[in-house]
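Structure ticket #2291
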Amino acid sequence: MKTCAVILAGGVGERFGFSMPKQYIRVAGKPIIEHTLDAFQSSPFIDSILVVVSEGWKDYLDEMLGDRYSKVADLIVGGATRSQSTMRAIEHLSSKHSEDIKVVIHDSVRPLVDPETIRQCVNELDTYQAVDVVIPSSDTIVSIDDNNLICGIPDRNFLRRGQTPQAFLLSTIEKAYFHSENSQVYSGTDDCGIVLNFLPSVSIKCITGTQENIKVTFPVDLYLADKIFQMRATKLANITNDCLEIVDKVIVVLGASSGIGEEITEIASTYGARVCPHSRSTTGLNICDSHSVEKALKDAFDEYGRIDAVVITAGTLRSGKLINSTLTEVLDEISCDYIGPVIVARESFKYLRETQGHLVFFTSSSYTRGRENYALYSSSKAAVVNLMQALSDEWAEENIHVNAINPERTDTPMRRKAFGQEDKRTLLSPKVVAEATLKVLSSPISGSVIDIKKDDYCN
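Resolution: structure written out below.
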């Protein structure tokens, strides 16, 4: 049975106070609705997408999306209310499909829906006719009367907060709306509520959603969503398979003399990639000097005629209080850990544009919060993540993939120099991180921080 996602984007944002509907406001580098569409476009459980827009915004959204979303089959204009917009979507789908299909209805302003929630919604429709996504309530819920006095406190063990997606067989939600159309008894904004009230014999299956799947309703939600995106990491298992599709790919590794960079070079070569390794000690590369970086990339292009990926593993890690560092040490560390990646990105663009290639940065778990005695390192890694996210948007039209690898503590010479000898059983091996990095080069993702955790691997 085919599955269509219906994205309801008909809201006008009256409570938001902005000049445009909130679904078009940018958060984490792109309009909210694009984040939402990304989730359904990338889901293997979704066959097509129908977007329902408010009056006067269809052409705006059509131009915004262009041809970047292959699963978006139609844009239609919705009604004055949410339920009317849902009704128009049902009528549209019914006119297009002679057989029953699965319908997954989602708010366009819930951009943080996760792949597992989408999968469960679709799969549960093999057993149930209706599915709701809910989360437990951590707050006490009270009932009040007309005088704003508490008249009851329900047991929250039996209460859940509703989210979207909500999923239905098309025949079921169509029948429920048919019965509700002329009713004055219930005029709610919840599609499962329509089914509950007008098809009481239909069981509605509840699956547990995530706390992160917030609905952007008020201005403060923009801030929360942006922070969640910033801290959200993509697990490698969710984005790649075990296949390294790098045969004959030209990969430039900057920082390849030891540790992760050395392992990337060796493994990629074994899998048939054409690797161009550079480092200060082997080829005289100075990642902080644009001419040095330009020469390294030009040499690779001159030899192979293209560059498919650039991986930056070069970096420095110094311990100590900022106030005790010399100005030279401060500038050197910032130059290597942040200015260097900026230079590499600028010099790489013209090559990666031609191959729709990959640019891979390395960050650290300290990017989410500065660490005592590592102020420059932590802040530089946070800057690298922001750089990656910005470039993934800026270069999206060129189809250049930009990501950042975030490995847990890894047994590298740089770490040993900073921390001394540690129990290797508590550390990731550089080989594991290198293999994970090459998997990213075999994937279509962009704009993600990729967590590499020891618990996910056996060294």
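Closing remark: The longest helix spans residues 327-355.
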